[in-house]
Amino acid sequence: MAAAYLQRFKLHSDAFASGGTRIHSNKDLDPVPFESEERKWTWPSLLGFWIAEAFSISMYQVASSSITKGLSPGLAILAVLVGHVLVCIPAMLNGYVGCIYGINFPVLMRSTFGVYGAYFAVFVRGVVACIWFGTQSFQGGQCIQTMLQAIWPSFKSFPNHIPASAHVTSAQMLCFFLFIIIQLPLLWLHVSKLRFLFMAKTIVMPIFGLTLFIWALVAAKGFGPTFSKGTHITDGTPAVVVFFQCVTTAIGPKATLALNMPDFTRYAKYPKQVFWTQAVGLCVLVTLCGILGVTVTSATQQVYGVTTWNPLQVSALWGNRAAEFFSALCWMFAVIGTNISANSVSFSNDLSLWFPSWINARRGAYVCCIISIAATPWNIQYSAASFSAFLGGYSMFLGPIAGIMMSDFWILRNRHLNLTSLYRHPDIYSFFYGLNIRAFTAFICGIAPNLAGLAKATGNKSVPKGASYVYSLSWLIGTIVALVIYTILGKVWPMEDKFEEGQVTDADSSSLSHSDPGEMKMPMHEKATNF
Fold first, then answer.
1. pLDDT surpassing 80 at residue 270
2. DSSP state of 41
């Protein structure tokens, strides 16, 4: 009876790749055809995704933490912009692959790391997504705490029974779990339906952001006083190193999205829209939230003489309980949108690859929510230094994967994939016993230059100071090194290139020439051969 009960929860999928060699899959792992009803994402949805990503506490803190490190407001904004331009490149290229083939990141990893090696790649990303989910949830808990304090000021005196060394109080822990509970119903939303959440956030958050920006300028009496502060670094680190550290910090929150854009663009209708919406959304809209963080942090220094990188602490300085409540409410809504889109979706897709018979997007989201509690996100949020160290630490592992993905599809495979082979083993993506040795070699070479710097950042004082200088560009160095090594290995040791008629998509320039609903009809050879 127990076995029969368990069978009710087992997942099944339509047999996309038939035959005895088919890899077990489920609906969330199978490709989404262009003709599918789920392909409803157009440019408003894609831009809404980035607006939803832009306005978040984490994005605000990325820029404001640059101010607390000693950079001038102008350099802090430049660091954010440079970081977003760099991470935009893999986001655009990888997102386009997801749109053309209708596959998500875990399935795409089979073409680079192999059908078994893909488990390693998604594990790396899944761990990051789970930790980041916990971090965002703790920020949402801080929003709830601020709202409760605004309604009942006595909540500030909530008894604390947790030692100071834990970097969290009883009130913060209570609000953290309250936020987790609030998120639970929203985790049920399927990825294809998230565009409605993005559109709601697109309306609310820009209005709130503009209001906050105007307050900062009025309170500080214009741009002049707000941006008058120069660069002043107290620990003796060269300004250029701090600048590149802030560039890497800006890349950190988007390093996961640079990989998992296929998770969302597989629902996009028009390939060309995937390109320009990534550029506008990431380089312009997300950077605007960074500018908001710099402006408000600088204005707070000017008006109150307080340096804080937390927007909730800024609202507490206003001395207006109503404003404090609604400010925290808007930030909480922002955190929910970002957490679901960037973290739970990533983790659930990754876990679905590991357990396709039992885990789909919805079940994986709830597993992510439970596991994220073990990430102890309050330690990450403890200070600007620990927050920056966390972002730099995990982005060094994601950069090499981004470099390998770009090299594999755009250089070595000349924009060709055998879609059916991604769902079969043994086949051309089995490589060496299911592992692509080239990808693992490139990954190791990509993280190697940054290991000493990581040790330095985590407290090893015996590491030379120069290692931290290299580590300040951990994501960029890892991406470039892995891309170059993988390309060289692919040229010297070519991968098997066996394609069967009716299974290959040529992602040629013809698909880019169709951009709007009035013009866009996928070329017949793409429609026929893709699915």
1. yes
2. B
